[in-house]
Design a protein that fits this description.
5 domains, 26 helices, seven-stranded mixed β-sheet, 26 strands, elongated, six-stranded antiparallel β-sheet, Calcium-transporting ATPase, cytoplasmic transduction domain A, alpha+beta, Alpha-Beta Plaits, 732 residues
């Protein structure tokens, strides 16, 4: 309806690439070179060391081109030469200590994740219930029970503790054993060793009428460690694959024209050169070239353009765009996995994997933890064996106390406890944190990139000069607008209805694809549409044009409504000293006007999805930490490429899933506030690490010189964990 949508023989519509006349030949060549794409679930992957181990080992495997482990989803994606099967890759991972299972990308669901969460919660509940009962029995022993009574209480504790440890400790035991078989040690090994040693020593003391047993210590260790593991799981469980959501947008079936007959077939069966019919209101299922028909396409999800674009014979169209007004016959240049929409999903997956390599503070601390703990415990055992002249019982007690007192409960709670507290605070402010490491990344941000349509603005055009039209012309415009499917026409009709305007009675109403809508009114021809179609001079703004018989045409101008809190958010970020940019797929006039209203000096218009991602990657290559705020399908690659990302709740599903944080309300004002909370959260995390390591500096020497039994070690360890949890709650 505006002159920004004039007919053109070729439209650069591809959201992930620029199509050329040789698209068919290029698609055929790509199909010939294609190898195997394998996706496997790796449920035991849980830290940065796992990423390095899995990816580096698989890439050494003959026939493997690349391997990427998505830690959030615990999935590994492998690009391999033809002939490499999923079973071959799974066998390799099993030898490495990571059981793997082949996934069908078309049927991915949250079932596996939900099951894992229920399993952890169940084991945590069992450990907590058993811990309370064993502590009651321990109180009786501490109160002075001796001889047979003490032995009986120890035996009852053993009956409760042994099956509890065997059941609730499975997440640690399985991972530790897999690591041992693969000749590597991680944090789960000292955890498992401490639990097993505490239980074994307690059982030995029970059968030898010893004064002390440490079943309460073993179960307490298990409980606190499971609590940390479950909190960590919950911070990851919300995230889902943005690539999966993008794939869900692909049209599963299409109408193929074969021999003059129409037949509905799966998109996967379409071949390059086939003819496809796309009716008005339908989503285009393939990349292709229009061979017949005229219409307008809504590409807002793909490019961010607020206005539909005209399309006709020889125009290039892409999968995902919505056909608005007229039927189109499209010749296929790419379909299914070769389409631009699917390639954009691949770009998102690559960006996800790159971002998941971010090393958190907890992971960096954990890398130093495991070897030092093993060395200290083993050293304590050797030294005390020498001091006591071979008293293995005493040496093992001190080694076990050293392992228990250094057990990483506080370290395991340091991050999840803070994330949980901060997430609750931000949720009450209208922000949902989806990724546990998002707070750490948000605290590091120095550059903010905004999308325009649907982010800084509401993405809905509003007429700004209806009062300039005479009453009868306003009634005609309302009637014509109600008869059209064009976004500007619908917005005009809704605005007129809100003002109480009763639409005029029209006859012979007809929509002309790509131009507008026309009718007869009191014997006169009336039109609402593009400037050149109604005989008007086009304005340099978004507008629809009304012509009533011989009267001079009138322009109805439109503006995109600013989102609540947009000006506050931009001003707050600039006040914090952060660089603010606006990158949009919309036309330069609209982008420049909005940038001027908000005081944004750096802006870019007509940016394709890969342009946005490239701009963010360039900023980050210069050392900047970028926060991306966007809402559309065209923003998903940029959202995953950014250091941290936020999407409004009104955003497309794929954009919400690709982002780290979801804005639940309409206002953008809470976003700068979230950055302040993130800075405080990281400060609390660092304080927790200080508490954890400070505690070890004091407690470890006490254990090494034999002044702490395993029970005292467990109590000291619990005290450090409680201190960490209380410090984390200060965020609330």
């Amino acid at each position: 309806m505006t002159d920004t949508m004039e007919p053109t023989p070729s439209i650069s519509a591809c959201p992930a690439c620029i199509a050329t006349p040789s698209a068919i030949e290029r698609a055929q060549a790509a199909a010939a070179e294609k190898g195997a794409r394998i996706m496997l679930s790796v449920p035991d992957a849980h830290c940065a060391v796992c990423i390095q181990t899995v990816e580096s080992d698989l890439e050494k495997m003959p026939g493997i081109k690349s391997a990427r482990l998505n830690l959030t989803l615990r999935r590994v994606s492998v690009d391999a030469e033809a002939g490499i099967t999923a079973q071959m890759v799974a066998d390799r991972l099993k030898q490495l200590g990571y059981p793997a299972f082949e996934l069908d990308p078309g049927t991915l669901s949250m079932t596996e994740t939900d099951k894992q969460g229920r399993d952890l919660l169940m084991r945590l509940g069992v450990a907590g219930f058993s811990m309370m009962n064993i502590m009651l029995l321990s109180v009786a022993v501490w109160s002075g029970a001796t001889d047979a009574t003490r032995d009986l209480f120890h035996l009852i504790s053993a009956v409760i503790a042994i099956p509890t440890v065997a059941f609730s400790g499975q997440p640690f035991f399985r991972k530790a054993w897999a690591g041992v078989k693969a000749r590597r040690l991680d944090m789960d090994f000292p955890i498992s060793l401490a639990i097993v040693l505490a239980t074994a020593i307690s059982l030995y003391e029970t059968f030898n009428s010893g004064r002390h047993a440490y079943f309460d210590a073993a179960v307490m260790l298990t409980f606190f460690l499971l609590a940390g593991r479950y909190l960590d799981f919950r911070t990851r469980a919300v995230a889902r694959s943005a690539a999966q959501e993008l794939a869900a947008l692909e049209v599963p079936r299409a109408i193929r024209i074969h021999g003059g007959e129409e037949e509905t077939v799966p998109v996967a069966q379409l071949k390059v050169g086939d003819l496809v019919l796309v009716r008005p209101g339908g989503r285009i299922p393939v990349d292709g070239v229009v061979v017949a028909g005229q219409s307008e396409l809504d590409r807002s999800l793909l490019t961010g353009e607020t206005l539909p674009v005209f399309t006709g014979p020889d125009a290039v169209v892409t999968a995902g765009a919505v056909n608005l007004t007229g039927p189109l016959t499209v010749q296929v240049t790419a379909a299914g996995k070769d389409s631009s929409l699917h390639r954009m999903a691949d770009l998102v997956a690559v960006a996800e994997n790159a971002r998941n390599k971010y090393t958190t503070l907890a992971e960096r601390a954990a890398r130093l933890y495991s070897p030092s703990v093993h060395l200290m415990a083993f050293g304590a055992f050797v030294v005390w064996m020498w001091i006591t002249g071979g008293d293995a019982r005493h040496a093992i007690n001190i080694a076990a106390a050293t392992l228990i007192i250094t057990c990483p409960c506080a370290l395991g709670l340091a991050v999840p406890a803070v994330v949980t507290a901060a997430s609750g605070k931000l949720f009450r402010a209208g922000l949902l944190i989806k990724d546990g490491s998002a707070l750490e990344r948000l605290a590091e941000v120095d550059t903010v990139v905004f999308d325009k349509t649907g982010t800084l603005t509401m993405g809905t055009p509003e007429p700004v000069n209806l009062g300039d039209l005479p009453r009868d012309e306003l009634e005609i415009a309302a009637a014509l607008g109600a008869a059209s499917s064009h976004p500007l026409a619908r917005a005009l009709a809704e605005a007129a209805r809100a003002q109480g305007i009763i639409p005029a009675r029209l006859e012979d109403v007809a929509e002309v694809p790509g131009h507008g809508v026309q009718a007869s009114w009191q014997g006169q021809r009336v039109r609402l549409g593009r400037a050149n179609w109604v005989g008007a001079d086009a304005l340099d703004v978004t507008a629809a044009y009304l012509a009533v018989g011989p009267r001079a045409p009138r322009a109805v101008a439109f503006a995109d409504r600013l989102r609540e809190g947009a000006d506050e958010a931009v001003a707050a970020f600039k006040a914090q000293g952060k660089r603010v940019l606006l990158i949009s797929g919309d036309v330069p006039g609209a982008v420049g006007e909005l940038a001027g209203r908000l005081g944004i000096d750096d802006w870019q218009a007509e940016a394709l999805p890969q342009d946005k991602a490239a701009a963010i990657e360039a900023l980050q290559a210069q050392g900047h930490k970028v926060l991306m705020v966007g809402d559309g399908l065209n923003d998903t690659v940029a959202l995953t490429a950014a250091h941290v990302s936020i999407s409004p709740a009104s955003a497309l599903d794929a954009a919400r899933v690709a982002s780290d944080i979801v804005l639940l309300g309409q206002s953008l004002a809470p976003i700068p506030q979230a950055q302040g909370v993130a800075v405080r959260a990281v400060r609390r995390i660092r304080e927790n690490f200080t508490v954890s390591f400070g505690y070890n500096i004091i407690a470890v020497p006490i254990a090494l010189v034999g002044l702490a039994s395993p029970l005292i070690a467990a109590l000291a360890m619990s005290a450090s964990s409680i201190t960490v949890a209380l410090n984390s709650l200060r965020l609330k």
